[in-house]
Amino acid sequence: MSEEKDGIIVILSSPSGAGKTTLVKRISIENNYKISISHTTRKPRTNEVDGKDYFFVNEDKFQKLIDKGEFLEYAKVFENFYGSTKSKVIEHLNNGENVIFDIDWQGTEQIKKKKLNYKLITFFILPPSRTELFNRLKNRDMKDKNIVEKRMNQFNKDINHWENYDFVVINDNLDTCYKEIIKLINKKKENPNYSYDKKNIQNHIQKLRR
Ligand code: ADP
Ligand code: 5GP
Predict the structure, then answer these.
(1) How many CA atoms lie within 13 Å of 92's alpha carbon, on the beta-carbon side?
(2) Which domains does the chain have, with CATH numbers?
(3) Least confident range of 117-126, 132-141, 167-176
(4) Ligand 1 centroid to 16 CA: how many Å?
């Protein structure tokens, strides 16, 4: 069982471009959550800093971390490897610090299966519309049309995983979405059985599939 003094784990997943990295940063800054900084074999974007946004490593180094059993979870996403290492995360949690993860559905499933002795709250973030998602990806990944296309193509598959999360939240207005996530974390901490109205989300998912 988790102890009252331990930190909690919060996971945010979403189709690429829905805004989870932006939300994770804000939750970390405003609520003092520690971010689990992933390792990846993906190349850095222009504004990304090694050791802050990711630990950028080659496949050889990534494989060595797998072999040494350093990962809590890892997965291949869009042809690159991504993984969350254990030691820092566990240290934070045992110190009573909350830890937030920006990982995909495969990593979330792996962490859920581990049944760690810490409270775990999972969120799936959706964009308000396909058009808005396209615009966000286009603005972020301007230089590489290929990336935007690949990520839009993956979108229909990615949204199928929404049902495996504790909560699904739409990131239309950033402020509103952020406040909703904080509200839901507090509700779930007070009442582990707290759930949400799925009907709204089901309708939204149908609209997004069109
Ligand atoms: P993800 O981590 O889910 O791939 P990002 O956090 O990188 O997505 O967001 C994708 C882009 O959309 C970024 O350029 C970010 O600044 C922007 N963005 C995120 N949330 C919003 C929002 N609510 N409204 C408008 N733009 C947003
Ligand atoms: P991006 O390349 O846009 O930063 O991330 C691509 C995808 O990889 C996103 O869905 C993101 O959540 C996921 N991701 C980032 N880090 C990890 C990780 O450590 N593990 C897993 N499983 N997915 C990750």
Answers:
(1) 20
(2) 9-36+96-208 (3.40.50.300)
(3) 132-141
(4) 9
